[in-house]
UniProtKB/TrEMBL annotation:
GO terms for molecular function: metal ion binding; nucleic acid binding; RNA-DNA hybrid ribonuclease activity. It is found in: Cytoplasm. It comes from the Bacteria. Mg(2+) 1 binds at D84, D205. Its main location: cytoplasm. The keyword Thylakoid does not apply. Mg(2+) 2 binds at E122, D145. Residues 94-209 form the RNase H type-1 domain. Belongs to the RNase H family. It catalyses: Endonucleolytic cleavage to 5'-phosphomonoester. Its EC number is 3.1.26.4. InterPro entries: Ribosomal_bL9/RNase_H1_N, RNase_H1_N, RNase_H1_N_sf, RNase_H_bac, RNaseH-like_sf, RNaseH_domain, RNaseH_sf. This is Ribonuclease H.
């Protein structure tokens, strides 16, 4: 008799616990930087979705959760801003924030927004940080753990497949303003990838995994 597996998707088109591989595969196939893992019981899977993906990768590979960074990765720059977003799998609500890495002080917090996505939140957080630093005439770098958001920033366009609804109309209006800001402004700030595997959790993480 085939053993039932339970699949946790931390980062994909949809996140959550799935009991069917085909349904899980639909969320992760072709999705950049997808994060998922199978579990033998529903109880394990439901507990895992509330925790950090990297904890379970470390267990699988028998490596510490935070590894010594190789020379080409190095250490993060303390004098910087880190941004992150959180998406509620139950409600679809999204929020994002930015913190000053050296002290952990929160600089901004936006949301929650209805019917959002994590990628949209990550994108808006970067633009928000850029606009904030421009007003401060600061060239501080910005850290994000989202490759997707970094690609969208480079293209100056949020390439989302999210459907417009009455509930998320304000969010789409924010996206338009963010894209317009990118199209009409230049900035000296570097946008850097936060290397979670080596540095631990993003300083702007909401701590709800």
């Amino acid at each position: 008799m085939k053993k039932t597996k339970f699949y946790v998707v931390w980062q994909g088109r949809k996140t959550g616990v799935f009991t069917d591989w085909k349904e899980c595969e639909a969320q992760i196939k072709g999705f950049e930087d997808a994060r998922y893992k199978s579990f033998d019981s529903l109880q394990e899977a439901e507990a895992a979705i509330q925790r950090n993906y990297w904890e379970f990768v470390a267990k699988k590979d028998s490596k510490p959760a935070v590894q010594e960074p190789p020379a080409n990765v190095g250490r993060p720059i303390k004098n910087s801003i880190a941004v992150d977003a959180a998406w509620n799998t139950a409600t679809g609500d999204m929020e994002y924030q930015g913190v000053y890495y050296a002290t952990g002080d929160r600089i901004f917090l936006q949301g929650p927004f209805k019917d959002g996505t994590n990628n949209i939140g990550e994108f808006l957080a970067i633009v928000h940080a850029l606009a904030y630093l421009q007003k401060k005439e600061s060239d501080l770098p910005i850290y994000t753990d989202s490759k997707t958001a970094m690609a969208w920033i480079k293209k100056k366009h949020a390439n989302t497949n999210l459907a417009l609804t009455p509930r998320n109309k304000p969010l789409f209006e924010m996206l338009q303003r963010a894209e317009r800001w990118l199209a009409t402004n230049t900035y000296p700030n570097r946008i850097l990838k936060w290397e979670t595997e080596y540095w631990g959790e993003n300083p702007a993480d909401f701590g709800r995994k």
